[in-house]
């Protein structure tokens, strides 16, 4: 199996879908390659495409704040990735074919990192990883056993939705980040 670095090099020249034609650069992911918590979003926005890093705009600032305040973690202590690695034009939703093209990259990232908890941000990552058509509003607020290694998936709203939705959405996100922290604390102390 390739390493994260080898896979990032492969992805940097990927042309599996039309998103490759409009990107500035692939936004692979970043963070601790042995992280206990992995955060999975939808796809890069304008700032992410320019910088080549996930969640660096306003959504990223909120993500960093919630990680610190509710989970007690710094960005460097988690691994952050997206479902699609290239920016959809105009920040539109990724199309099913684009998600399918990038899915092997995400699956390999998850396998190599081996997180204990996967925190999904929004509909696209949650639906993909839980293999469901249910929406985030119905799915969040719970934890789901997930993956062959016995990880737990905690779905929450996307930070962009919280920025638009105000205090109530942010309060629910905070509760989900606390849930992820509690699961990690339970995993660290054992049964």
TrEMBL record:
<keyword id="KW-0408">Iron</keyword>
<feature type="domain" description="Uracil-DNA glycosylase-like">
    <location>
        <begin position="28"/>
        <end position="184"/>
    </location>
</feature>
<keyword id="KW-0378">Hydrolase</keyword>
<keyword id="KW-0227">DNA damage</keyword>
<protein>
    <recommendedName>
        <fullName>Type-4 uracil-DNA glycosylase</fullName>
        <ecNumber>3.2.2.27</ecNumber>
    </recommendedName>
</protein>
<dbReference type="Pfam" id="PF03167">
    <property type="entry name" value="UDG"/>
</dbReference>
<keyword id="KW-0411">Iron-sulfur</keyword>
<dbReference type="InterPro" id="IPR005122">
    <property type="entry name" value="Uracil-DNA_glycosylase-like"/>
</dbReference>
<keyword id="KW-0234">DNA repair</keyword>
<keyword id="KW-0004">4Fe-4S</keyword>
<comment type="similarity">
    <text>Belongs to the uracil-DNA glycosylase (UDG) superfamily. Type 4 (UDGa) family.</text>
</comment>
<dbReference type="InterPro" id="IPR005273">
    <property type="entry name" value="Ura-DNA_glyco_family4"/>
</dbReference>
<dbReference type="InterPro" id="IPR036895">
    <property type="entry name" value="Uracil-DNA_glycosylase-like_sf"/>
</dbReference>
<dbReference type="InterPro" id="IPR051536">
    <property type="entry name" value="UDG_Type-4/5"/>
</dbReference>
<keyword id="KW-0479">Metal-binding</keyword>
């Amino acid at each position: 199996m390739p390493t994260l670095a080898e896979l990032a090099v492969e992805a940097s020249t990927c042309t599996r879908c039309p998103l490759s034609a409009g990107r500035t650069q692939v936004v692979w992911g970043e963070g601790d390659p042995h992280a206990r918590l992995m955060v999975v979003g939808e796809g890069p926005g304008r700032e992410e495409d320019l910088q080549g890093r996930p969640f660096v705009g306003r959504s990223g600032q909120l993500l960093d704040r919630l990680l610190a305040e509710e989970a007690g973690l710094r960005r460097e202590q988690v691994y952050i990735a997206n479902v699609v690695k290239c920016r959809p034009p105009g920040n539109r939703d990724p199309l099913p074919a684009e998600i399918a093209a990038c899915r092997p990259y995400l699956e390999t990232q998850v396998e190599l990192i081996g997180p204990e908890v996967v925190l999904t941000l929004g509909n696209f990552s949650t639906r993909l990883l839980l293999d469901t058509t249910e929406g985030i509003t119905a799915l969040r607020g719970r934890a789901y056993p997930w993956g062959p290694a016995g990880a737990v998936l905690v779905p929450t709203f996307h930070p962009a939705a919280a920025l638009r939705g105000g205090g109530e959405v942010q309060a629910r996100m905070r509760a989900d980040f606390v849930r992820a922290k509690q699961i990690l604390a339970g995993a660290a102390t054992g049964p």
